[in-house]
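> example.struct
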């Protein structure tokens, strides 16, 4: 079905969420990353409603992505995997994320 979904107008790298690139994020296999890079703008546009489906394959994608049920379509499963990866990337915890920085002055300590 991927041949029936139109290619994106440009490559989809999503540098905002994956600064090193989708293909180096560690969430996707090489074929999955390549598919997202080539078709990501179209899938994102269809998902967000910015693009209207132009054929039956795209309409099927839109219908299936909005259902909670499991889908057998590769594009739907991959886009859901992408959305899950976005959630993981945006909710990463770091060791310093909740700590307030404490500035200390050592001027009052006597030198040995």
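> example.seq
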């Amino acid at each position: 079905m991927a041949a029936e979904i139109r290619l994106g107008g440009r490559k989809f790298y999503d540098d905002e969420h994956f600064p090193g690139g989708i293909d180096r994020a560690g969430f996707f296999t090489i074929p999955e990353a390549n598919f997202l890079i080539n078709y990501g703008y179209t899938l994102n546009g269809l998902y967000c409603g910015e693009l209207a489906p132009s054929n039956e394959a795209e309409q099927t994608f839109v219908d299936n992505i909005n259902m909670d049920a499991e889908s057998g379509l590769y594009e739907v499963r991959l886009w859901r995997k992408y959305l899950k990866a976005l959630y993981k990337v945006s909710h990463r915890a770091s060791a310093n994320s909740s700590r307030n920085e404490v500035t200390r002055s050592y001027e009052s300590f006597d030198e040995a």
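> remarks
The first helix runs from residue 30 to 48.
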